[in-house]
């Protein structure tokens, strides 16, 4: 089974992927950054992000690849929080929130029909529905991020995407990505 940290990392990546990618759309997507959220002092207690990264594989196409370790089991006591903000890249300031998803971890994974099944096929992540997700080491082999959820008329702008793991409503680990739609 997968640990909460690993699944949280995956959840963040999945959510970010949905926001970033726009294959065959009238705009281009640029990934400006992808990094752990340095705001959390105890991030290492929950997850070792290892070599997990997003790489560009074509126009508006990105792949998630690498290894990470979940250091604790994750269940519905923890939550995944995905937030998307407009972003002033020049001044590195968040603007208004344009998307907010906050669900218990296992519920988030079990309800996802678009991403997790494909991600699981490109990794050693457990089958959907297993909860809690166990701590452990996981790898993802070039999972191409989903690109179908953005509307054709998505506003062209800079965005900041935050995927966080919450424990008892307190953020404990996360990833941040800055993207630009042009």
TrEMBL record:
Residues 1-21 form the signal peptide. Keywords: Signal. The keyword Signal applies. Pfam families: DUF1091. PANTHER family: CHEMOSENSORY PROTEIN A 29A-RELATED, CHEMOSENSORY PROTEIN A 7A. This is CheA7a.
């Amino acid at each position: 089974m997968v640990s909460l940290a690993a699944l949280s990392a995956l959840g963040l990546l999945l959510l970010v992927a949905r926001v970033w990618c726009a294959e065959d759309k009238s705009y281009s997507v640029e990934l400006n950054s992808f990094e752990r959220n340095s705001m959390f002092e105890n991030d290492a207690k929950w997850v070792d992000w290892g070599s997990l990264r997003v790489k560009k594989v074509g126009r508006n196409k990105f792949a998630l690849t690498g290894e990470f370790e979940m250091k604790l089991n994750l269940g519905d006591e923890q939550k995944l929080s995905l937030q998307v903000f407009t972003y002033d890249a020049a001044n590195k300031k968040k603007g208004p929130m344009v998307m907010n998803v906050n669900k218990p971890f296992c519920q988030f994974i079990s309800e996802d029909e678009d991403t997790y099944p494909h991600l699981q096929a490109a990794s050693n992540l457990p089958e959907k529905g297993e909860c809690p997700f166990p701590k452990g080491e996981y790898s993802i082999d070039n999972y191409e991020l989903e690109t179908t959820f953005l509307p054709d008329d998505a506003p062209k702008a800079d965005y900041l995407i935050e995927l966080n793991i919450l424990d008892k409503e307190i953020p404990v680990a996360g990833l941040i990505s800055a993207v630009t739609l042009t």
